[in-house]
Specification:
mainly beta; 26-stranded antiparallel barrel; 3% helix; globular; 2 helices; lipopolysaccharide transport protein A fold
């Protein structure tokens, strides 16, 4: 290659390096992302210093000291490709000029266009006319002129930004759904921001907002401070409500989101979220605060003004390759604070244990785990927000210890597992007491208990020549309880008991291959023998009050989910499983079974259907009859009359036009001793490509009322989604007369602009 060709090619490559990455776009802000992977190495075969130049003609003009390439000029370097009709390199001034249908394809796939381009000698500055670009995710930018001031600052004049399609649909005028126009756009890579001057936001070609100054995060920045999508509501409690989150990046590993909520009828409410990543873990804390009177279901304020707040925090940290520790802190000043101010994502798992609905659970724990053992140590405190809750009756659990160990080698040819558990419960007030403490009538104390358990289990599997599988097992357990504050008993009592069971699981699977699938039929039986169950009245049943007899525990030797209650006696668990699977993905399963006992066991609650010699029937089934449709049902039928004692059924349907999720539950006797019947549905359906409706509903069939109804109208295209949602929710609310059950109505507007924010239920 001649020196003139090298000089020309160097100028062309300089142009490629100059403009690549000079994009000004927007992005969805995601908190604390993982570090971006290193860019993939260039694979064009040219290496880091290699050049490629192709043109119809190359002219060297020694008089004017220029080199000119004309006619379908193409230059490549470092994975970037430059195409133009003419490229001129002035060896004296070290200026490169390109003209005519300039196209630059970058290594990341983004494409940039220009009519004319000029670069300086050291390639740190340049100027382009008729500039435009296209990059992921579907971002398009056009400008009359583009100026690269230096390596970190790019400037566009009379620019337009949009992620929407710009080609006219049938009957359309070609205007994008939304776009931002500005007299000047500046991309500052040092600050990782894109600034706009005199910005106008247009929707369907109509200006809807004018902002003298506007900015958002650089598309090339991992994360950057800025406004997040707002939440707009009209509710009965607060009137018109506008919540505007703002993300402030504090460091590469921490950030805070401030979300002031401005309400027409009540004082503002400030939400704050702090996130921090450490080398060994993370911390996240949500908090809210207001100074206001109480609010009833109609938005009327009553009572005294006071400080009202909440805290929802969690963290998890690695101590070493085996030990972790973490915590969850959940507290609120008001039972109805989350309802009054529409605080989302409250009752979810933040640590080891998941709280019930309308209950908060603070925890701290440590876990050690390897391939053969597990150890957890935890402490738990609960705050109840339900109408019937009395926080004095919730025990403080400290500590709660669980340990498991399994030897690496087999023991007597089978698998041995050793388990230990311990818990200390301290309760301020007995759960069944409704008497409030007074000087004359002191607060009745709740029962405090301490338990230590050691357990070992052994199992071995055999397969006979006939195909019958036999799995004998042995389980032994020893419990020690120490209880105090028993009614009518002074001091404390210590109770010990030994428990055990021996038995075997027996199954005989039959397999048949079909033309386009297969069938598996499997009769299953479990024989278990243990001493008769006998619950000492001094042992409080704390962990086995609520459980369902279903297909999940039908073949468990001890169906009790906790330690306080233990299944005893001689029993036979019998049933059958069937499964049909088709090669095209269709399938169906069925399980039917029940439990038989030699003696009645009244320790099981009547609602379980287990206390009789012959238990209720357990039936469960699932099916995928066609692609996109999943069905399931599980039920428990009376042992004599086959009446439905419990039924749960549902369907999941997905289609290119939307989805529907349906759940139905009927329980003849729930944990509170009441009949329950509920129906829930979640659905979204698009009648056309752009117009759709959404519905979220929860109906109490037993009482004949809807607990919640969300009805939404949706419009969407490739770059915009608008949801208008009417929500009616029946809730317990505070009133001057006391707690009442009232409906709460609200209207929500959700606007989602592609690359500037996303949304969803």
């Amino acid at each position: 290659m001649s020196s003139s060709q090298k000089a020309l090619l160097g100028g062309a490559a300089a142009f490629a390096l100059l403009i690549a990455g000079g994009s000004a776009g927007a992005q969805t802000l995601t908190p604390l992302p993982e570090p971006a992977p290193a860019p993939a190495p260039v694979t064009d075969g040219l290496g880091e210093d290699g050049f490629y130049l192709e043109a119809d003609m190359v002219i060297r003009d020694d008089k004017n000291d220029t080199i000119t390439a004309r006619g379908q000029v193409e230059a490549r370097r470092n994975g970037r490709t430059l195409r133009a009709e003419e490229v001129v390199y002035n060896q004296g001034t070290k200026i490169v000029t390109a003209k005519g249908n300039i196209v630059l394809v970058n290594a990341d796939g983004s494409t940039q266009f220009a009519d004319e381009l000029t670069l300086d000698e050291d390639m740190s500055a340049g100027f382009a006319r008729g500039f435009s670009m296209r990059s992921e995710p579907n971002i398009k930018i056009a400008a009359d002129a583009a100026i690269r001031r230096n390596e970190n600052v790019n400037e566009l004049s009379r620019a337009v930004y949009t992620p929407c399609p710009v080609c006219a649909e049938e009957g359309g005028d070609g205007s994008p759904t939304w776009q931002i126009k500005a007299s000047k756009v500046v991309q500052d890579k040092t600050k990782q921001l894109v600034y706009y001057q005199n910005a106008v936001i247009e929707m369907w070609g109509v200006p809807v907002a004018y902002l003298p100054v506007f900015w958002h995060a650089d598309p090339q920045a991992g994360r950057r401070s800025g406004f997040l999508p707002p939440k707009i509501e009209v509710t009965r409690r607060r009137g018109f409500s506008y919540e505007q989150p703002y993300l402030q990046v504090l460091s590469p590993s921490s950030e805070v989101v401030l979300s002031p909520q401005f309400n027409a009828d009540v004082n503002p409410f400030l939400n704050l979220t702090y996130r921090k990543r450490f080398y060994s873990g993370y911390l996240e804390a949500r908090a809210g605060y207001t100074y206001e009177r109480d609010i009833d279901g109609n938005g009327e304020r009553f009572g005294e003004r006071t400080h009202r707040s909440y805290l929802l925090a969690k963290g998890k940290f690695e101590i070493d390759d085996k030990w972790d520790w973490g915590f969850a802190a959940e507290r609120t000043s008001d039972d109805f604070l989350f309802d009054n101010y529409s605080v989302d994502s409250v009752y979810e798992q933040r640590a080891l244990f998941t709280p019930d609905d309308r209950r908060l659970m603070s925890q701290i724990y440590a876990i050690r785990q390897d391939s053969r053992s597990y150890l957890s140590i935890a402490a738990v405190s609960v705050q109840g927000l339900r109408l019937e809750d009395n926080n004095r009756t919730f025990p403080t659990v400290a500590p709660l210890v669980e340990a498991r160990w399994e030897p690496e080698s087999a023991v007597l040819g089978g698998r041995l597992r050793v388990r230990a558990s311990g818990v200390v419960l301290n309760r301020d007030q007995a759960p069944t007491t409704t008497i409030l403490p007074t000087p004359e009538n002191p607060r009745p104390a709740g029962v405090d208990s301490r338990r230590a358990t050691g357990e070992a289990s052994w199992r071995r599997d055999f397969t006979l020549t006939s195909g019958i599988r036999v799995s004998p097992f042995v389980q032994t357990r020893f419990d020690t309880y120490n209880v105090s504050d028993l009614p009518g008993v002074s001091g404390s009592d210590t109770i010990t008991r030994g428990l055990g069971v021996v038995g075997a699981d027996i199954s005989w699977p039959f397999f048949k291959r079909l033309e386009n699938g297969s069938i598996v039929l499997e009769p299953v039986a479990q024989v278990a023998i243990s001493p008769d169950s006998d619950l000492d009245p001094r042992i409080p049943n704390e962990d086995s009050l609520a459980f369902e007899f279903d297909e999940n525990n039908l073949f468990r030797a001890n169906k009790s989910p906790g330690f306080d209650l233990y299944e005893g006696g001689q029993r036979l668990n019998a049933g059958g499983r069937a499964r049909i699977s088709m090669d095209d993905g269709r399938e169906a399963t069925l399980l039917v079974g029940r439990s038989f006992r030699t003696e009645r066991d009244d320790l099981f609650p009547p609602r379980t259907g287990l206390q009789h010699k012959a238990s209720d029937w357990v039936v469960s089934a699932s099916a995928k009859p066609v692609p996109g449709v999943s069905l399931f049902t599980r039920s428990r039928l009376d042992n004599d009359t086959f009446a439905i004692r419990r039924l749960e059924a549902g369907a999941d349907v997905s289609h290119k036009r939307g989805y529907t999720v349906v759940r139905y539950l009927r329980d003849a006797l729930d944990i509170n001793g009441l009949e329950q019947e509920n129906f829930d549905v979640y659905s979204e359906f698009f009648a056309t490509k752009k117009w759709g409706v959404s519905f979220v509903g929860s109906r109490d069939v037993e009482n004949g009322e809807w607990r919640r109804r969300d009805i939404g109208l949706v419009w969407r295209d490739d770059c915009l989604r608008i949801d208008v949602i009417y929500q009616r929710e029946n809730q317990y609310v505070n009133t001057p007369e006391g707690v009442k059950f009232r409906p709460n109505d609200s209207v929500q507007l959700r606007l989602t602009l592609a690359t500037l924010g996303d949304t969803g239920y």
